[in-house]
Design brief:
signal; about 15% helix; five-stranded antiparallel beta sheet; elongated; mainly beta; Ig-like domain-containing protein; TAT_signal
Length: about 150
């Protein structure tokens, strides 16, 4: 008896599912609404400009006996800040014989626009140029044009 009821109930449910799936739905989607658009602004990061190596010079290095033992490059770079809002730092990069040196020469926090450092002047046996890259707080960057070759 239980088996018969169970079989009958299963048959009724199967027929209901099949017939229910075959009938069209009665729901209607007629609600409409206005779509508003938000204005989109794009930001173009502008590079630093007017890169200058004025003030860069080579100075003889002497030992305690007064003999010249080498030459020191006193590098000074200056530039005009990028006008892009959100610039947080400038990365100074060296380009040696046309190839970008793999590590930054210096990282300068904005709004500073001057970098100074000393190097052994023997680096100038190569063709050395520099560039300045503006870095924003949201990670966008833009590199300046290359400086002229640095000479003593």
């Amino acid at each position: 008896m239980i088996r018969t009821r169970r079989s009958a109930l299963l048959l009724v449910l199967a027929v209901a599912v099949l017939l229910g799936a075959a009938l069209p739905a009665h729901a209607r989607f007629s609600d409409t609404g206005a779509v508003t658009t938000a204005p989109m602004r794009t930001v173009d990061v502008l590079p630093p400009t007017n890169l200058s190596t004025a003030g860069t010079k080579c100075v003889p290095v002497h030992n305690s006996a007064g003999q010249q033992t080498g030459t020191r490059l006193e590098a000074k770079l200056s530039w005009t800040a990028s006008p892009t809002p959100g610039v947080v730092r400038y990365v100074v990069s060296a380009h040696v014989n046309g190839t970008l040196y793999p590590y930054p020469v210096a990282v300068i926090d904005a709004p500073n626009t001057v970098a100074r450092d000393d190097y052994d002047a023997s680096v100038l046996a190569n063709d050395v140029k520099v560039s300045i890259t503006a870095v924003t707080g949201y990670g966008w960057t833009e590199q300046s044009v290359l400086s002229g070759s640095i000479r003593c």
